[in-house]
Here is the input.
Amino acid sequence: MNTDTDLLWSPGRRDMEDSNVACFMRWLDTVRGLRFEDYGALWRWSSTDLPGFWSAVWDFYGLNTVTDYDEVLADSSLPGATWFPGARLNFAEQCFARACDTRPALVSVTEDGAPVETSWEELRGQVADVAAELRRMGVGPGDSVAGYLPNLPQSVVALLATAAVGAVWTACSPDFGTPSVLARLSQARPVVLVAADGYRYGGKDYDKRSAIADLMDGLPTVRHILAVDRLAAAPDKPWSRRPEVEKHDWSTLPTAEGPLEFAEVAFDQPLWILWSSGTTGVPKGIVQGHGGIVVELLKALGLGADLRAEDRYLFVTSTSWMVWNFLVGGLLHGSTIILYDGSPTYPDVNGAWRVAERTGATMVGVGAAYLSAVEKSDTHPAADVDLGTLRSIMQTGSSLPASTWRWVHERLAPGVWLQSICGGTDICSVLAGGSPLLPVRVGRIQCASLGVALDAWDPSGRPLTGEQGELVVTAPMPSMPLRFVDDPDGARYRASYFDTYPGVWRHGDWVTVHPDLSVVVSGRSDSTLNRMGVRMGSADIYDVVEQLPEVADSLVVGVERPDGSYFMPLFVVTADGTALDDGLRDRIATAIRGRLSPRHVPDVVVPVAAVPRTLTGKKLEVPVKRILQGASVSDVSSAGAVTHPETLAWFADYARRSMPGT
Here is the structure.
């Protein structure tokens, strides 16, 4: 790789000397007598001496003043690792540990309203009020509280109040279809539903009270609704058709009689349930614990992303995406978190950057699809929006085309540190991401994260350097799932991560780990393109095809056919009504052949109205592949879990018309 042309950002003196990770390295030297010459040496220690590293994180962030523990890692088995037995640690309590009077805890903003600040004292009071109400409802450890909420301050308050009483939180955004919400929340068996009457998106109001009534019919365990008036709609629709359900209005909750109290819970006490996408079957309920999330998000946001107490941290997300939980984790650092309830493309494609401008955001997280959309709009945010306070952009969700890396540094935020991060719902954290100690180069995630024994393996389990392999984690992490919901013997959990390499976590991505520890993600390994024994990542093809001005979006899959042949179609959404004629097909093939190889050229290029995605922006490669192999739409996707669901029926029709024998 030509480092002169591909180098986008280099750490400055402040990054090398005063970043959180630099301070951590000095602390290790001073307190523990451990000296590391660079990030690579620090990572190698952190991923091999797990007790040493995680006890250092514990002490560096002051958890040693909160609770003792018997040992760091009592059992290192995968799955089944046991972390910090004997420790008592409540996530909500730790979110207030670095509260201050000079900065707000929350800044909330809607599409049209002015930013509203919530002080730390106000946040503590609101959490105390809701926690007291939950206790009056009889909620405590072992119970589940569900949210059906957009990205509101009440959502953060409800999560923290649930954690404070020792119950388990879970949530779905109201933009999910009702069947999709029920597929998730019914597994959690909540006793309380915290629900907003609707939400506003793209300039339109969506009243969800009828949907809430339908949810209540499908959630027989719910005894109470805590109603949030987001739209303040006329009270002409019932929230529930079940007379035994008690409705409580958020706005009229009584003030708590005493200070906020936190349940004393074990390190591995369940904190929340996150949900897999549900695009290939019943969504998996991923249970993560108080302690694991606390130490992991202290490390990931602090020592990786370099989040500081003085930061204003915005992540453009809904409550259904794990990055919302990752955003709330900013409170652990005393940071101000910014909650945007609206569309990133309202009133125009630069809507999210206007929110960053209005709120003075210093760190902004977005999905790769949004960055690509802004790039394709041919706007110039750096000239149109004042992003003077911004010091870092976090990007996740999928791989970023090379041109978008350059566009971010040339037309969005010149000189700003772009962190591309890879992790996921499974761990609610980062496996590979940024470090302020390392340069940023086009197409490369800067490094494997501290404490993550990340590697790339070939099918036989041989480590690879500079070659594409399966992303594996060979040692436990504190935030790995405690278990899955309704998986009493752990069979579903083991099948999800440990079937391929027993005792080793297989994440499901193709990656290349380079000698300098930088990482390239090439797409999901379960949607790998494999022609004539050569494995290819779909992201490489998207990177080429979607740079053509005539192409707005694309989807490529590889289909093994019953006769042993291999069929690789490329589905293309053209830009602005451009016709997909033979000339455009030839330009697509020529670009792929020239920049990749003849093997990457698809068998056919087919026009499609839209590319279906998960609600967090990931292309539905595996479900479409299964449809082309003959699976029914209902077998590969749950209702309400995808965008453009009508296209799945189109793919099924395409399979019948164009793929006989499937």
